[in-house]
Amino acid sequence: MARLEIIKIGHPTLARKSVRIEKVDDEIRRLARDMVETMHAAPGLGLSAPQVNVSRRLITVDLSIGEKQEEIIVLINPEILSREGKVVREEGCLSVPEIFEKVTRPQKVVIKGQDLDGREHVLEAQDMLARVFCHEVDHLDGKLFVDFLSPLKRKLIRKKFIKKDEPNEP
Ligand SMILES: [Zn+2]
User: pTM to 2 decimals?
Assistant: First the structure.
């Protein structure tokens, strides 16, 4: 297992749409294992492949942050099937360190995705788990939580992280 580097806001991979995984092979299984280790070490509740600079549709989630093995969820090609309700809560991101802002997310989602054996699962998630799923799936579509904030707030946050010579500066 290996810890991977987590890229930060301003890196082009974070703004890119990730590619669907057609075959769950050993390479994908190793990526998932490394992502779980990286997520635990960070520590964070969730991680998406683009955050370790891999544009593939894979997310890992663990609300127990390494306390309970059975709470680790790895989803390949995750897709949110339905959203219900609204909850406003502060949210952060390992790719946008030390920034926490209120974001509206559904209270409940139904999500489908494959496990590391390629089997498809449909999960129902509420509250924090629903929030983390939405956050991580957004990463696969090149979206960060700061994209939901006001243009002024977004600009201030980007300014804090993105150096002037980088092309992503708005
Ligand atoms: Zn994030």
Answer: 0.94
